[in-house]
Structure to design on (131 residues):
């Protein structure tokens, strides 16, 4: 695992660190080809330079974010922001469903909007995979 992500996880509270560690382990194992790093102060995984999944600490929860998640057709994921992102929030380790998470990560690999070039396109998202 990326040492910066391990450090991020270790800095979380006693309740939140296990959630972060579990998410990182599953994401890393399911998307071994992805580049992982701390991006905008949060762990994020990229495929070909495009952000696909990551998580962050919010007040009272850990938010798992999929940049193209609104296109996954997954009722457990909630709309986040004005683009195509969707999220799942966790407050306890036992809420992390590994089967669901692996399915969502598979979709993150196969369904992507081009966030890598969003600035170049002046905020316009284009589909690049699976759409």
């Amino acid at each position: 695992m990326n040492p910066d992500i391990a450090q991020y996880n270790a800095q979380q509270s006693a309740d939140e660190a296990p959630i972060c560690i579990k998410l990182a382990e599953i994401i890393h194992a399911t998307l071994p080809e992805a580049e992982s790093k701390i991006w905008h102060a949060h762990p994020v995984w990229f495929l070909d330079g495009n952000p696909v999944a990551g998580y962050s600490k919010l007040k009272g929860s850990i938010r798992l974010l999929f940049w193209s998640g609104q296109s996954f057709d997954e009722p457990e994921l909630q709309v986040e922001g004005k683009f195509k992102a969707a999220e799942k929030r966790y407050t306890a380790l036992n809420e992390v469903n590994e089967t669901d998470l692996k399915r969502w990560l598979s979709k993150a690999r196969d369904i992507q909007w081009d966030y890598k070039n969003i600035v170049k396109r002046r905020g316009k998202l284009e589909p690049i995979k699976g759409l």
User: Anything to note?
Assistant: The CA atoms of residues 43 and 54 lie 5 Å apart.
